[in-house]
TrEMBL record, chain A:
Bias type Polar residues, positions: 139-148
Protein family (similarity comment): Belongs to the CcmE/CycJ family.
UniProt: heme binding residues: H123, Y127
Function: Heme chaperone required for the biogenesis of c-type cytochromes. Transiently binds heme delivered by CcmC and transfers the heme to apo-cytochromes in a process facilitated by CcmF and CcmH.
Keywords: Cell membrane, Cytochrome c-type biogenesis, Heme, Iron, Membrane, Metal-binding, Signal-anchor, Transmembrane, Transmembrane helix
InterPro entries hit by this protein: CcmE, CcmE-like_sf, NA-bd_OB-fold
The protein, known as: Cytochrome c-type biogenesis protein CcmE
Gene that specifies this protein: ccmE
Main location: membrane
Length: 148, 657
């Protein structure tokens, strides 16, 4: 092989590798995006069915209930306008409590219950998850517009 | 009074940083030796003032001076001394001061250990470091002054976030920062070389040990951070693809590529522009990591501040650094062309392949970390990218990297015969695949992921043995001891670091395949089974700590009727912050960890207990330790010192033109 064609092959190989790797990354990216929805959007049916997504808001006061096994937890997430019931089995974050902000990730069940696979809360007492804050802000903005 | 001294000292440090950033560069462009030599003194003075300033801040924390805003927010009179000290960097302002101090320390190290660099080159390196330091000190003083007072002083502090009150947090931030900031030296060397328009093997050789040392710190910092997440967050996981973890992982990936690319530039003169780009990239990603973590754009335990002015400042600094360096690169790149040519089958080509893949991997993490932020900033909705994305991407990207990693050392520089290489590696590759698949069957977990992971690990181990055998065969005749001794430290560094990756893969694969966990409701005397272990709940007692109240459970762990460990997980309540926290308890073993955490107490008095079985998780840390050890070997190679000294006259003559 001439040095020139060798060089071209090397370059071609590197470019092919790069293209293949980038294609892989973008496909995986497309498939694994998790969208965020506010409780109001979920109530309006804007959330996807059969796909994992996130809901953020406040844990509705008085809504936390433990099942008889002591491990399955039911609670509700609200943006102060709409309330979405959630079931979750697993350990809750230390700072998960009623009236405080939380974000849940999971799928909407056929029974209208959101089956959470992950519950995220804040990292310290003064902090509010931005997604939860966003949901509440949205709901309150809408409420104001309706009143006017 | 002491905090004011610290503040004043920080201002003086800024002035010296500006002097260090401007005067030597002017001297270098006009070839004035007197101006160039200002850099050293300014750098050393700057370091002393920053250390003094840091000392003042630490003094305020130790003495619980709650008239200092920072101490009042992040310390408490009842906090143990060690956490009073770590509280200094357990917050935005203090951690930035630590950042600035690391940079000053690296700069001083350059003035001390690279004394033999040509004066003009040293002046440019110090100039660049001085400019970076000025940016950060300005940032500190303008937007995040650690010495702000409150009047009247607070009667009591609000205490450090309990998650950070942990031994891991004592060394994790300093190590990580030493790693992040360490890439600034490689960056400064690259910019200095661009400015001088000369980029030769000597430059790469000067740069290599610095890059390796930065990489050692970063690796150690990430490892300890991961260990902290494992036992302190209490979820039994070791890596969460959390944006802040990604922020440290991206410079690591690019830094790893940089180390290998520098090797090629030094040995063969090839990849010169690529190496410079990687040096710029690794440092830019370190800066971006600081921006992501400290600006509060991320939801995370690391996000101390949510002040947009700060985020904007770091962002501006980042844009400035990347913009100026890339402009300089575009201007000078044509002079970098050429270098050694190499064939399709050659050591260079295999390293190029790994470099491309590591860079793409770094880019994929960047995409997954930044895209949600962009979408949010453009008000297009909120999304998140979770572990499934990163896992999907990393397995196929890293598989060829691992395979190539052990083939590379068999391939000759410049050009080699493909069939010769194939003959050398094919038996090992086939044996690894057989071993990996066999092992997957043996442990009864046959998935392609397990089989692939174990095959790759087997390939690294077999490859390591083959490489060592080949290396020893090179010196026929001499005794084995003499042959082993004749191998340079840098080679052992490569060998240990690569072996560490094999050990790491074993840990990751097995913990991913065989781990198990359950959540149970337990009353005193109850037992639960997991993975052949029996857990007996012995009840809960009060166990107050210095600044918290705690409920401590006692759980006996036995196997085959023999009790071998008593675990005591705690549920703590930190009074100052009103914050509950789970403290896991772990029985660590070479082949498995048994991990227990304590959840909530239920109405009937029972406790929710999490039981975790984590096989081979120690191998993850052990593998990372081997990588660090490899780095230490590589950086300590005598060759760098010897050659650096020998090169000086020639280098100086060339540079001074």
């Amino acid at each position: 092989m001439k040095p020139r064609s060798k060089r071209l092959m090397l370059l071609g190989g590197a470019v092919a590798l790069l293209i293949g790797a980038v294609a892989l990354v973008l496909t995986a990216f497309q498939e694994n995006l998790v969208f965020f929805h506010t409780p109001t959007e979920v109530a309006e049916g804007k959330a996807p069915t059969g796909r994992t997504f996130r809901i953020g808001g406040l844990v509705e006061p008085g809504s936390i209930k433990r099942a008889a096994d002591g491990l399955t937890v039911q609670f509700a997430i609200t943006d102060t306008a709409k309330v979405i019931p959630v079931t979750y089995k697993g350990s809750l974050p230390d700072l998960f409590s009623e009236g405080k902000g939380a974000v849940v990730q999971g799928k909407m069940g056929a029974d209208g219950q959101f089956a959470a696979s992950e519950v995220l809360a804040k990292h310290d007492e003064n902090y509010m998850p931005p997604e939860a804050q966003h949901a509440v802000d949205q709901a309150q903005k809408t409420a104001k517009t309706v009143k006017q | 009074m002491i905090p004011e001294l610290g503040h004043f000292s920080l201002i003086l440090a800024l002035i010296l940083a500006l002097v260090q950033g401007v005067v030597p560069l002017i001297g270098a462009s006009r070839n004035r030796l007197a101006l160039m030599s200002v850099g050293r003194a300014a750098a050393q003075g700057q370091f002393l003032f920053i250390v003094f300033s840091f000392g003042c801040l630490t003094w305020a924390f130790i003495n619980s001076d709650f008239s200092l805003q920072l101490a009042a927010s992040n310390s408490h009179s009842a906090t143990p001394l060690i956490y009073k000290i770590t509280g200094v960097w357990g917050n935005h302002e203090g951690s930035l001061l630590l950042w600035a101090m690391s940079l000053a320390l690296w700069t001083v190290a350059v003035t001390v250990f690279s004394r033999n660099l040509p004066e003009i080159f040293m002046a440019r390196v110090l100039g660049v470091l001085g400019l970076v330091s000025s940016g950060f000190l300005l940032f500190l003083l303008v937007t995040s002054n650690p010495f702000d007072r409150i009047l009247p002083g607070a009667p009591e502090g609000r205490d450090l976030n309990p998650l950070l009150q942990d031994p891991g947090m004592i060394i994790h931030p300093p190590l990580l920062y030493m790693g992040y900031v360490g890439f600034s030296v490689a960056f400064a060397f690259a910019i200095a070389a661009l400015l001088s328009g000369r980029m030769d093997a000597a430059w790469a050789r000067w740069s290599r040990p610095w890059t390796t040392v930065a990489w050692i710190f970063l690796t150690a910092g990430i490892t300890i951070g991961s260990g902290w997440a494992y036992y302190e967050l209490g979820w039994g996981g070791w890596w969460f693809w959390d944006p802040v973890e990604n922020a440290s992982f991206m410079p690591w990936l690019l830094g790893t590529a940089l180390m290998h690319s520098l090797a090629v530039t030094e040995k063969r003169g090839a990849f010169r522009s690529w190496t410079v780009l990687l040096a710029i990239g690794a440092f830019s990603l370190s800066l971006m990591g600081t921006f992501l973590v400290r600006s509060g754009v991320l939801t995370s335990v690391h996000a101390f501040a949510t002040d947009p002015a700060r985020g904007l400042f770091v962002l501006a600094l980042l844009v400035l650094v990347i913009g100026v360096s890339l402009t300089l690169f575009a201007w000078r790149a044509p002079t970098l062309a050429g270098g050694g040519s190499f064939g399709l089958v050659s050591r260079e080509a295999s390293l190029l392949g790994n470099n491309v893949l590591l860079s793409v991997a770094s880019g994929s993490v960047l995409l997954g970390t930044l895209y949600p932020l962009f979408i949010d900033a453009l008000n297009l909705g909120k999304i998140s990218v979770g572990p499934p994305y990163f896992e999907t991407v990393f397995v196929p990207l890293m598989t060829p990297v691992i395979v190539l990693m052990m083939i590379g050392p068999f391939v000759r520089w410049k050009g080699d015969d493909g069939s010769r290489v194939l003959r050398k590696v094919a038996p090992g590759l086939i044996a690894s695949a057989v071993l990996g698949i066999g092992a997957a069957f043996a442990i009864g977990h046959v998935t392609w992921r397990t089989a692939l992971g174990l095959s790759l690990a087997a390939w690294v181990l077999i490859g390591s043995v083959l490489i060592l055998r080949q290396r020893l065969a090179d010196r026929q005749g001499a005794g084995t001891g003499a042959r082993v001794r004749s191998i340079p430290a840098a080679w052992w560094g490569m060998w240990f670091a690569h072996l560490g990756i094999g050990v790491f893969i074993i840990g990751v694969t097995l913990v991913g395949s065989l781990n198990s966990q359950i959540q149970v409701k337990m009353l005193s005397g109850d037992t639960a089974q997991l993975a052949g272990y029996t857990f007996t709940f012995r009840g809960v007692a009060n166990a107050p700590g210095p600044n918290y109240a705690a409920a401590r459970a006692t759980i006996d762990v036995s196997r085959g009727g023999v009790r071998f460990a008593t675990l005591t997980p705690e549920k703590r309540f930190y009074e100052a912050q009103g914050m509950p926290m789970t403290e896991a308890s772990i029985d660590i073993g070479p082949l498995r960890d048994v991990y227990v955490n304590l959840g909530d107490q239920l109405e009937d008095g029972a406790w929710v207990v999490g039981l975790f079985y984590r096989p081979f998780i120690s191998w993850i840390w052990f593998g990372c330790s081997l990588m660090v050890l490899g780095g230490i070997f590589a950086a300590s190679d005598r060759r760098y010192r010897r050659l650096a000294e020998r090169e000086v006259p020639a280098g100086a003559a060339r540079q001074a033109v």
